[in-house]
Write a structure and sequence with these properties.
Helix content: under 10%
CATH architecture of the largest domain: 7 Propeller
Number of strands: 20
Shape: globular
CATH topology of the largest domain: Methylamine Dehydrogenase, Chain H
CATH class of the largest domain: Mainly Beta
CATH superfamily of the largest domain: Regulator of chromosome condensation 1/beta-lactamase-inhibitor protein II
Largest sheet: 4 strands, antiparallel
Oligomer: single chain
Structural class: mainly beta
Strand order of the largest sheet: 1-2-3-4
């Protein structure tokens, strides 16, 4: 089964390729209220879960409110990610546009012109940073870089505007940890940067990797 998984405060949520939602805690539980919605993507933090379905609706649920709230959104979305601080949700569409909203301020959803102009393929977020891959294979980021999580070197602590992250190959995918970023290229290589205190980047460098580093697996 192909799936996406996200941790919540007391469980893990799985989204299968058939659109089924399953909560994994002491025992797997299929959420009946979230069945047959044709989900395509989800994003979560420790106590909130947001889902996108094929009609473009957000289905939100939280540990405080188990009943999902349906929020209409008809922009043909392709995926979604959450930057935890400040709690910002980014949604990218099949046409490459990027929309965003702040938690607690739904349904106030606005287009993000700076990212949309780059023709975004996918995005990922950490605790305080967000990175986007464009359809031409470029990387762009915003947010904190105090631990090198944007790969912008040691002289830049924050990127308030959309800033290019330079790597020597075309990017095709990205994922983020709290303060780390991993990028897969079209050649099958992995570039990493950010915090590596606990081996998050899978490389022998201790502390912070402030510039993109090609990870070599022996």
């Amino acid at each position: 089964m192909n799936s996406l998984s996200f941790p919540l405060l007391d469980s893990t949520v799985l989204l299968s390729d058939t659109g089924t939602i399953c909560y994994l805690s002491k025992k797997p539980i299929i959420n009946e209220s979230l069945l047959k919605k044709n989900y395509i993507h989800m994003a979560a933090n420790i106590n909130e879960l947001f889902l996108l379905n094929k009609t473009g609706c957000f289905i939100s649920s939280s540990t405080k409110n188990k009943s999902p709230k349906i929020i209409p959104y008809g922009q043909n979305p392709a995926g979604m990610t959450i930057q935890s601080r400040p709690k910002t949700f980014y949604i990218w569409t099949h046409s490459g546009d990027v929309y965003f909203f702040l938690s607690g301020r739904l349904p106030l959803i606005r287009i993000m012109e700076a990212y949309s102009a780059k023709n975004v393929l996918m995005m990922a977020s950490g605790l305080e940073h967000t990175v986007a891959v464009t359809r031409s294979g470029e990387l762009y980021g915003t947010g904190q870089n105090d631990k090198g999580q944007l790969g912008l070197g040691s002289g830049c602590y924050i990127a308030n505007s959309v800033t290019e992250i330079k790597i020597p190959e075309k990017a095709i995918a990205v994922t983020c940890g709290n303060a780390s970023t991993l990028v897969v290229t079209e050649l099958g290589n992995l570039y990493v940067f950010g915090e590596n205190n606990y081996g998050e980047l899978g490389c022998p460098v201790e502390g912070f990797v402030v510039n993109p580093k090609k990870n070599r697996f022996e």
